[in-house]
Amino acid sequence: MKPIALVARALPYVGWLLLAALIFVPAYGGSRYLVYIGTLIALQAALATSLNLIVGYAGQFAMSHAAFYGFGAYASAILINSAGLTFWWSIPAAMLAAAAIAAIIGYPALRYTGGVYLALITFAFGELARLTAANWQDVTGGPMGMRITYAPEALFGFNFANSRGMYWIAVAMLLVTLAVVFFIQRSRFGRALIAVREDEVLASFLGIDVMRHKMIAYVISSALAAMVGTLYAPMMSFISPELLSVHETISLVGIVILGGAGTLAGPIVGTFVFLGIPELLRIESLYRLVVLGVVIVLVVLLMPQGIVGVANRVLKRWQRPKPAPPPAEAEN
Rounded to two decimals, what is the model's pTM? Predict the structure, then answer.
């Protein structure tokens, strides 16, 4: 096998190698800073994976993902501080609330609009959520944000209140998100979702309920984003309305496109490239956004299927059987 084919065969599995490194390196022998970076990467990869469900598999360009991420953080903090829930019970409560809001927003957005109009509607919802968090001072703390004084409680005898415990929660959330997307990808629903992404008219002609599939994907994606957001509050000890900014969603879309939309390992690879490497190199956040913009333009122009998508395409090309040579003419 030629070297290009070997590289192409290896690239789709890079995401899983990075995932294994994310799990074992910070957990065993990693410094406190490495554990913190591992937690950030796990949360970002989980968030990008949940966005990949609606963008990569359903083909719907929704711009409200950061809003549900921030909603999960705010909802969890408010439920713990005001309603007296524990951190663990606040996770399903925030997910259910996010799913209900996603259903209310998604029904008119997905039923009566699509394409750029869906992006505009979800963008407007994201800005509305950010402005609400910035102006509802009695509940959210307003533009100055909300201080977080709680930590995840011990569970099954394990302490999750320290940085290493939160790291394990972040890894668990990433694995849960990957498992949900994996089972959807392999299910009949997932195959129908990909058919909707490729051609909605043809999918409808084949008997697929296009609206129902898009709605379910949007609701599940938003609920998973809220789940990830619940850990952001105790990890950072602070929440601000900027968490709901549309710029966060743009960064997530860039991660999904960079790694490979519609692939399971793509968001993990994209997260390591966009967040892991610059963080380890201590690049300032402003320059990180500039680098992301340049990378997105290059990927769209040169690799529209992302890193993992290009690797899969190259591998299929090299695995394609070569045509048999023509039979030799019989000698007279």
Answer: 0.82
